[in-house]
Amino acid sequence: MAMMAGAALCFSGMGVCYRLALEEGLPTPAAPFARGLFTLLILIPWIARQGIAAAFLTRRPWLMTGRCAAGLVSFQSWMLALVLLPLADAVAIAQARPLWAIPLAALFLHERIRRDRVLAALVGFCGVLIIAQPGGALSWGVPAAVLAGVGGAMVFITIKLLSTTEPPMRVIAWYALSSLVIWGPVCAWLWVTPSWGAVALLLLGSLWALGGDWLASNAARRAEAGLLSPMEYIQIPAGALFGWLVFAELPGEWLPVGVALMLAATVYLARAAGRQA
Question: Which of 198, 225, 235 is nearest to 11 (CA)?
Answer without folding.
Answer: 235
